[in-house]
Write a structure and sequence with these properties.
The protein is built from 8 helices and 9 strands. The protein is of the alpha/beta class and about 240 residues long.
Length: about 240
């Protein structure tokens, strides 16, 4: 909401990522990923396509620009509840908060949230003692199944990821082939008498790692840790997890 309001105050101007971090996240220590995720959350609510934007344009490596037509809403006017499908435009000056609030409310109220697309890639076997190829496939299949059960997440499933095994693709390339916004990749490492599963979440549009976590497991717990991983991935993409 604050991000949309800040862009609306400067229509047509390039607003740098540093400026947004300073004004929208004032007093909070965050990194540019917070801006990327907020923009990614706004676009489906506004019906805006990043490849052919009509509302928010991305200026690579610099920031964002509000390119929608801007109208002013007087302070003494409260926008009526919009008819489904009707679009309001953000205002300026004193009426900015009212107009932008109405814009956000309109799309939140009448457009169901779009599911976030996530695909788990086959885990790498980095164990130093013996072949864990079967374990890595089993872990990946279970993770895909857990992600598919979370409302708000859609996934192409395990077999789609399995088809890419051995192709030595970069995560961004795999995400494009699987037509998803995020990929989850990771590796199984030997650690003492058990294993350590190192996981990370990568955005397709930027190639950046936006979340990572290590999970120490034993042979018996390795096949139950997928619930925790799936829930952590859901939180990282802004979706409510199944467990807590």
């Amino acid at each position: 909401m604050r991000l949309l309001m800040e862009l609306a105050r400067r229509p047509g101007d390039l607003v740098s990522i540093d400026d947004l971090l300073e004004t929208v996240w004032s007093g909070v220590t965050v990194n540019p990923d917070s801006v990327y995720q907020a923009i990614a959350g706004l676009r489906p609510l506004l019906g805006d396509d990043p490849r052919d934007p009509r509302i928010i344009a991305t200026v690579p490596r610099l920031g964002y620009r509000l390119i929608a037509t801007v109208a002013c809403v007087p302070d003494n006017e409260t926008p009526a509840a919009p008819h489904p499908g009707r679009r309001l435009v953000p205002g300026l000056g004193g009426g900015a908060a009212i107009a932008v609030a109405a814009l956000a409310w309109a799309f939140i109220a009448f457009r169901p949230p779009q599911p976030v697309s996530v695909a788990p890639l086959i885990l790498l076997d980095m164990s130093s003692t013996f072949d864990q190829g079967v374990l890595t496939e089993d872990l990946t299949e279970r993770l895909a199944s857990r992600l598919a059960l979370i409302p708000g997440i859609r996934t192409p499933g395990f077999r789609a990821s399995l088809a890419l095994r051995g192709k030595h693709l970069r995560p961004v390339e795999a995400a494009r082939l699987l037509n998803v916004a995020y990929v989850v990749d990771g590796a199984v490492h030997t650690e003492g008498d058990g294993f350590r599963i190192a996981m990370r979440l990568i955005r397709r549009d930027s190639g950046f790692v936006v979340w990572s976590q290590d999970y120490p497991v034993t042979k018996t717990s390795a096949l139950t840790v997928q619930d925790a991983i799936a829930d952590d991935v859901a939180r990282a993409v802004g979706v409510k997890p199944r467990h807590g």
